Amino acid sequence: MTTDLLKAEGLSNAYVDPAGGPDVKAIQDISLTVEAGRNLGILGASGAGKSTLMRILLGLESPDQGRVIFDGIDIHQPASKRSTPIRGRIQVVFQDPRNSLNPHLSVATIVAEPLLAQRRTGRQHQKQLVLEMLDLVGIRPEMAERRPDALSGGERQRVAIARALITHPDVVILDEPVSALDAPVRLQVLDLLGDLQERLNLTIILVSHDVRTIAALADYVMVLLKGRCVEEGSARELLEHPRHPYTRALLAAVPTLKARGPDGMSDRLDG
Ligand SMILES: Nc1ncnc2c1ncn2[C@@H]1O[C@H](COP(=O)(O)OP(=O)(O)OP(=O)(O)O)[C@@H](O)[C@H]1O
Ligand SMILES: [Mg+2]
């Protein structure tokens, strides 16, 4: 049995420029392989194509070219042609929980949403699963009936993480999961993600412009520049010996960086 969980082959996607200019080539010829239990970090500046790639990996958008294979299934095939439902097995946490959480729903309802979509769990059991998951992400039970507005930014992002994990997905895609948070909260949430990854046996795909965020969680890193992959390799190798001038420039801005250790334990970041 292969350990390749997710594979993307030759993905390209362009958008029509609303201003009438040439099409925007958001990503060009991107291929990647995600092995189970090995976190992939996608690093690139604003506009590099990170979110476009993420939406395609999630199946939210179809590529102009290429395909995405998850556990042997082409995720962009119509559902009727797929052998197994993928729903719930790949989940996502977006950058800004202020926008990604419905302000009218309680925390408990938000976290339960993916379970409702699966229609597999009875109400009482659902409630219990939600409370367990909230506990796992560090949200106290009395917060379950609050609306997102009554939470701090860090707490909101914990709720978004709980929602993503409630179906016990194989892969979680994190699109700039901590960039909307203050520095100390950012570290707490990164620690939580590292901890959950080990406890729940998750595979993470992490998208960020921030080298330190990538270093905290990724085992393997791909660097995107203007929609193209300019460099990729193990996090340790790439972060300690960057080859491409663009990667070097990104790393030069954070001199005290350390990659995750080879044993999977994170050395984290200094400062
Ligand atoms: N729906 C769209 N319509 C038109 N152009 C788009 C669309 N989505 C993205 N683009 C363009 O594609 C390019 C890549 O955008 P994308 O959002 O994927 O980058 P990103 O790396 O996620 O950037 P950021 O770090 O700012 O989130 C940009 O030039 C962007 O303007
Ligand atoms: Mg983006």
How would you describe what is shown here?
The protein is an alpha/beta fold and 271 residues long. Helix content is 34%, strand content 24%. It contains 9 helices and 10 strands. The protein has a 6-stranded mixed beta sheet with strand order 6-7-8-3-9-10, sandwiched between helices. It has a 4-stranded antiparallel beta sheet with strand order 2-1-4-5, covered by helices on one side. Strand 1 (4-15) and strand 2 form a beta hairpin. The N and C termini lie far apart (42 Å). Mean pLDDT is 89; it is low at 263-271. The structure holds adenosine-5'-triphosphate and magnesium ion. Magnesium ion (MG) binds next to helix 1. The site of magnesium ion has 2 residues, from helix 1.
